[in-house]
Amino acid sequence: MPARTPLPRTLTGRHVRLEPLSTEHLGELFEAGGGDEEVWRWQGGPAPQTEAELGGKLATLLDAAERGAYVPFAVVHRASSRAIGWTTYMDINVADEQLEIGWTWYGRAYWRTAVNTESKLLLLTHAFEDLSMGRVQLKTDHLNHRSQAAIARIGARREGVLRRHRRRPDGTWRDSVYFSILADEWPAAKENLTTRLRELDHAG
């Protein structure tokens, strides 16, 4: 089956629901992560200190989504029914059967919980099994060791480093570490993610 363009839709798990991101999520998103420098450290700019500042970032993302550059999701914590972060499909290339999962953040209270694992499970399942993608990539700053470890834990393979890839807001240069999962690797990665989610459930 040929790959298909991702469209806004809702993906539901036990812990999180990924739903189309909108301005209606702004207040809850600011409560979850506004003003937290550690949450925004790797997001390309200082932490938004007001709801209006976060609204500017949200508007930029939604404008890019209107042009087809992103498919953004609000990450809704099902136990509280509140938006606690966002994540996106980006760098979408249907002809080459590939996309990227990126521009992801969650409120710090949800780090090291089932939130990221289940979010990635939902996004990857949709990409490979519904959209027939052949490759899903993820990338992160070479200094962001926490993110690199999290990406490796989901079963993605480290491909290499794109040097001097992007200028950071402080003027320094970022190297980007690239990871990917291919369609034929997905069954093993899915089993790994499902097992990890089960372990997190039991630990919780």
Automatic annotation (TrEMBL):
The keyword Hydrolase does not apply. Keywords: Transferase. InterPro entries: Acyl_CoA_acyltransferase, GNAT_dom. One of its GO terms (molecular function) is acyltransferase activity, transferring groups other than amino-acyl groups. It comes from the Bacteria. It holds the Pfam family Acetyltransf_3. Residues 16-157 form the N-acetyltransferase domain. The keyword Transferase applies. This is GNAT family N-acetyltransferase.
